[in-house]
Design brief:
The complex is a heterodimer. Chain A has a domain of 273 residues. Chain A is globular, with a radius of gyration of 21 Å. In chain A, strands 1, 4, 5, 7, 8, 10, 11, 13, 15, 17, 19 and 21 form a twelve-stranded mixed β-sheet that branches. Chain A is built from ten helices and 22 strands. Chain A is an alpha/beta fold. In chain A, a hairpin with a 2-residue loop joins β2 and β3. By secondary structure, chain B is an alpha/beta fold. Chain B has a single domain, classed as P-loop containing nucleotide triphosphate hydrolases (Rossmann fold, 3-Layer(aba) Sandwich), CATH 3.40.50. In chain B, β7, α6 and β8 form a beta-alpha-beta unit. Chain B is globular. The chains are: A alpha/beta, B alpha/beta. At the A-B interface, α8 and α9 of A face α2 and α3 of B.
Chain lengths: 450, 255
């Protein structure tokens, strides 16, 4: 079928793509082909818009992104102190820093690397590390999705982590993707590839920071390969500035008896969309996808969470919580697909929201697509206001209304905050939450009236 | 200490919903008053109106504490003056720990009085002592406030708050409902241990059984929004024996 309208905003990116191709004579041929495939896909799709009747983008208005212009170049100058001030940090963690899409050896802190190969994706590509050629863009970039296609067209650098079979890393590995303060409005497409071998155990923190005061467009893509019997405790912290666009994608492929547990903390950006997909590709794989989002002003936040049960005996759990105020808008779109062969699957989905203002809006749509017959599944979504009886209870003990509201909002967030186990990370998300709550309450008009 | 004069109250936003129809009551310092009455008599409403629950609208009369009207005060301001309400149905508050909440309550009170906040260390010590005194499972108070607590545990938790906050006037709204005899005894012991010449109690109850353990100075019978009889502890025993029927009939005839 012919599209009624031409693909949106392709021309905004074509100049940068052509320059990249022209200046990349030294990259391997296979990468050139991967990029080109990404570009062809993107130029057919264009940026998704509401207008084209695309169900996946029904609730998220990308018009402000389509209307903006972004330059493209990787790398910028940032100091370690700036990163420490803006995000979570612990000297005992292994930390990989990527500035404006470019790996920085100088800012990275890699000290406890037995069994861990952590560093630049560009280097992994040029030296052909591990299975990089078959892994890169294999989970994200070959499907009909504009942002992974665009990111794939622009693959240059990012971070690469390989964990040798049997390695159990006690300390977390943090990958910081930071936008420098010197940046004009730029587009960046940082990539992360994690190749976790069999019987490995890691804690991985993906942190997105933005030091610039201008609108940035980031379409980061993470591809995680969880080898047999591996455990990945994954965290994701999204702290873009309030004028930026953050369209992120994470794709996880899980082998047998793996356990992938992920908790997202998403508070930044003007428009943020976190697209997460886990593929349970061998028996006994289990994934837990949790997250907390907070929105205020005219922010849009979209959690696009999906899991495919491809093989029997796998478990998935999706649970997100949202706190919305002002005229902000959030979407939770949870999807679980249980394939025909995936008997004995167990899937749960839940999205709970606290609406602090009349102008805030949540669209929560958990959905199940089940082709097998022996499946346990449950889903639910709620949106509520702060309960006035509860508020009265706190007030009757002498806590004033403002403090009581803050206690209740914080209480709502608590169970997600508790999931952030590494001390420095927990301290960070608690501090940011405590800073955000007064902002959310300032824009609140429903408390005590529900 | 507390004086209620001709108090009338309705449900907010509902016409012709008057529940309290002219309550008069004086509670002296150090006294324990029991308010008894059948279902729907307005006992709980009275307890909640005294604490300033926003669901009710006072349409006439006044309530004074130490001679000052409290009707214009917010619930937290009333608490700062030393009032306390033990709830019939304490709210479950996910993610909020009793420790944290009580510290906030005490801090807020200290702040309103221009006093120094209690140090975390001193508060922890006080809290642990009270947890032991009330007989709450210490693991329970590490969890979310009232979440997943049994009825008895919730009431014990109310007693814990009473002990920590040390109010001058404690109102117990049917604290005995849903309690087994052991839990009832613990609540009563909590109240009795806190009785002092400086502290007053209003114990709202449907049944007399709580009054086996807490001996009131004065008993009031509340029927259809009015106090129809006031007497000593023996009045509670009469009600236990004869029920509220005669009062209901009398109130019905007067209506």
């Amino acid at each position: 079928m012919m599209l009624a309208t031409p693909p949106v905003a392709v021309e905004k990116f074509s100049g940068a793509y052509e320059s990249l191709v022209a200046g990349s004579s030294d990259v391997p041929e296979w990468l050139k082909a991967v990029r080109q495939q990404g570009w062809v896909t993107f130029s057919e799709l264009g940026l998704p818009t509401k207008r084209r009747g695309n169900e996946l983008w029904k609730y998220t208005n990308l018009q402000p992104l389509a209307a903006a212009d972004f330059a493209y170049s990787i790398g910028g100058s940032v100091t370690v102190d700036q990163i420490k001030a803006a995000g979570p940090w612990d000297d005992v963690w292994n930390t990989v820093v990527v500035v404006d899409g470019k790996f920085s050896a100088e800012l990275s802190n890699l000290h406890d690397t037995a069994g861990l190969d952590a560093g630049s994706l560009a280097e992994a590509i040029s030296t052909g590390k591990g299975d990089i050629e078959s892994q890169l863009a294999s989970l994200a970039g070959r499907e009909e999705y504009a942002f992974t296609a665009l990111s794939t067209a622009f693959i240059e650098d990012g971070a690469y982590l390989a964990i040798a079979d049997g390695t159990e890393l006690e300390q977390p590995i943090q990958v910081v993707f930071v936008t420098s303060s010197d940046a004009e409005s730029r587009a960046s497409y940082p990539r992360l590839v994690v190749d976790a071998g069999a019987n490995t155990s890691i804690v991985l923190i993906e942190t997105y920071l933005n030091l610039s005061g201008t609108a940035q467009f980031a379409a980061p893509v993470s591809e995680l390969f969880a080898g047999d019997k591996s455990t990945i405790r994954h965290y994701r912290v999204q702290m873009e500035n309030e004028t930026s666009f953050h369209l992120s994608t994470a794709r996880v492929r899980q082998m047998g008896d793996t356990n992938f547990i992920s908790t997202t903390f998403s508070v930044g950006a003007s428009i943020a969309r976190n697209d997460v997909h886990t593929l349970l590709d061998a028996p006994g794989a289990s994934c837990t996808l949790h997250g907390l989002y907070m929105t205020s002003g005219s922010q849009q936040q979209d959690q696009e969470i999906s899991t495919t049960h491809a093989k029997p005996g796998c478990t998935s759990n999706q649970f997100y919580k949202g706190i919305l105020s002002g005229k902000s808008h959030a979407v939770f779109s949870g999807k679980v697909v249980v394939m025909r062969d995936a008997q004995k699957s167990d899937a749960t989905q839940k999205d709970l929201n606290l609406l602090l203002s009349r102008g805030a809006e949540i669209d929560a749509k958990p959905s199940l697509e089940i082709y097998a017959d022996d499946v346990t599944a449950a889903h639910g979504a709620t949106a509520g206001h702060v309960d006035k009886d509860t508020l009265f209870y706190l007030q009757s003990r002498g806590v004033d209304e403002e403090a009581a509201k803050a206690i209740l909002v914080r209480g709502f967030a608590e169970e997600m905050l508790n999931e952030f186990e590494p001390k420095a990370l927990n301290d960070f998300v608690e501090r940011i939450t405590d800073e955000r709550i007064p902002v959310l309450l300032q824009q609140s008009d429903t408390i005590g009236t529900a | 200490m507390l004086e209620i004069n001709n108090l009338h109250a309705s449900v907010v936003d509902i016409e012709n919903s008057e529940i309290l129809k002219g309550i008069n009551l004086k509670v002296g310092r150090g006294e324990v008053h029991a308010i008894m009455g059948p279902n729907g008599s307005g006992k709980s409403t009275l307890a909640n109106v005294l604490m300033g629950r926003p669901d009710y609208l006072v349409t006439d009369g006044d309530v004074t504490l130490e001679g000052e009207s409290i009707l214009e005060l917010r619930p937290d301001q009333r608490a700062h003056l030393g009032m306390f309400l033990a709830f019939q149905y304490p709210a479950e508050i996910p993610g909020v720990r009793p420790w944290q909440f009580l510290k906030a309550a005490l801090d807020s009170k200290a702040e309103s009085r221009g006093e120094d906040k209690m140090s975390v260390r001193n508060f922890s010590k006080l809290f642990d002592e009270k947890v032991e005194a009330v007989g709450i499972n210490p693991n329970l108070v590490k969890r979310s406030l009232n979440e997943g607590f049994s009825g008895g545990e919730k009431k014990r938790n109310e007693m814990l708050q009473l002990e920590v906050l040390q109010p001058a006037l404690a109102i117990l709204d049917e604290t005995d409902s849903g309690l087994d005899v052991d839990a009832l005894r613990i609540v009563a012991e909590g109240v009795n241990s806190m009785r002092s010449p400086e502290r007053s109690f209003i114990v709202v109850t449907h049944y007399q059984r709580l009054l086996n353990y807490i001996t009131p100075d004065v008993v009031h019978i509340l029927v259809k929004g009015k106090i129809v009889k006031t007497g000593g502890p023996e009045l509670a025993l009469e009600v236990e024996k004869d029920g509220y029927q005669e009062y209901l009939e009398a109130a019905g005839a007067n209506a």
